[in-house]
Structure formats: structure tokens, C-alpha cells
Write a structure and sequence with these properties.
The protein has 208 residues and is an alpha/beta fold. The protein is 34% helix and 30% strand. The radius of gyration is 16 Å and the shape is globular. The two termini are 24 Å apart.
Length: 208
């Protein structure tokens, strides 16, 4: 993950929010997964890491949790604040989160690791674990595979982003290396092309 990632999402912020802010309405599996995550959390606030326009954190907030968001892109954070009044949002990096240790009961990282290289995963997961309370829960999702897709245009906007796919066993091993225990690991096939990119997805729940 580099400054190129932040600038890539800065360029995309408006279109990204327009296209994806309401995506969960068309994704029943994702809603069920987030419902289960929220029901398994200990008491305390939740962090949406790599929050984009804040729609995933907003969904969990509407389930009755206090949720904050953090994202690498300043313009994406500006858009999240506009779309989600009453929620706190911060500019920050997954690899160095701007929060004290043991700040959150839960952490959501929906497609947030997809710009990290494989060798960066253990340190990023250790940082996520640092900000979680003992017994806190991580909800993680990512694209399944072994490829890197270079995206230079999306929704008519010039950008420059590398989307990195991972095998589930690779991610699970990095989580265990960071000190997490895997509680759930599920693969799903993509929704229809008009809903999302046609990639297999993995969803993990991991306990601190």
C-alpha cells in the first residue's frame, strides 16, 4: 500500500460513493454476516477500517453499535462524513492505526487488505489486534485468488490501483501468526455482474 493508493481513491471518492453506498441492499449474505458479527461482539465500540464512504460501518451502527471509520483517502473520509452525520471518521493507515491499544470491541475490514502485499499481512493484522479489546472480534473479507489486477480507470475516472487477491489459507495463517483465533471462514460466489465484480470472496471472523 502506497501514497498511490490514497490518491487513487481520492480521485474515485465521489463515484465510489455514488455506486457503492447502497450496495448492501443487494447483498443478503453480507448483511447476514454483519448481523452475526454484531451479535457476537463484546460490549464496546466498533472500528470500520478501510471504511470508504462508511456504508458498512453505517449498517453496523444501525444494528445498535457505536461505530467509527478510518480510511487512507482524505477525500473518501470527507464523503463518509457527508453521508453519515453523527459518525466519527479519521484519516489513517491500516498498518498504523491512529487509536490507543484496546480501543474497540470489534473491527470491520471489508476488502481493506486488498492493497497490501502478502508480506504486509501479519503486521497489519497485529495492528488490528492491538486496537481490539481482549475477546474482540475481527470481520474480514477479500477477493480469492493469486492475481494482482491493475485498475487504471473505473466508472469513467482515471485512477491507479492494484487489487491483490489472496488464498484463504494464506490470510488465515497470517491472522494466526498475529495472534487471532479463526472462528468462521466462508467462501461465496459473486453476485450478479450488475451488483459487483465477478470474483470469489472469502469472509472470516477472527477473535483476539
Amino acid at each position: 500500500m502506497t501514497d498511490e493508493t490514497a490518491s487513487g481513491y481520492d480521485a474515485l471518492a465521489a463515484e465510489y460513493a455514488d455506486h457503492l453506498f447502497r450496495e448492501l441492499e443487494k447483498k443478503p449474505f453480507d448483511r447476514d454476516f454483519l448481523n452475526r458479527f454484531a451479535g457476537l461482539l463484546p460490549a464496546g465500540p466498533v472500528l470500520d477500517a478501510g471504511c470508504g464512504p462508511g456504508h458498512v460501518g453505517r449498517y453496523v451502527r444501525d444494528l445498535g453499535r457505536t461505530v467509527s471509520g478510518v480510511d487512507l483517502s482524505p477525500r473518501m473520509i470527507d464523503r463518509a462524513r457527508e453521508l453519515n452525520p453523527g459518525m466519527d471518521f479519521h484519516v489513517g493507515d491500516l498498518r498504523s492505526l491512529p487509536f490507543p491499544a484496546a480501543s474497540f470491541a470489534g473491527l470491520i475490514a471489508f476488502y481493506s487488505i486488498i492493497h497490501l502485499r502478502e508480506e504486509e499481512l501479519p503486521a497489519a493484522f497485529a495492528e488490528m489486534r492491538r486496537v481490539l479489546l481482549p475477546g474482540g472480534l475481527l470481520a474480514l473479507s477479500f477477493h480469492v485468488g493469486r492475481e494482482v489486477r491493475r485498475i487504471e480507470e473505473l466508472w469513467g475516472v482515471r485512477t491507479c490501483l492494484d487489487f491483490i487477491f489472496f488464498e484463504p489459507d494464506t490470510v488465515a495463517a497470517a491472522l494466526r501468526e498475529a495472534g487471532f483465533g479463526i472462528e468462521e471462514q466462508i467462501l461465496r460466489e459473486p453476485y450478479a455482474p450488475e451488483v459487483e465484480a465477478q470474483t470469489r470472496r472469502c469472509y472470516l471472523l477472527a477473535r483476539n
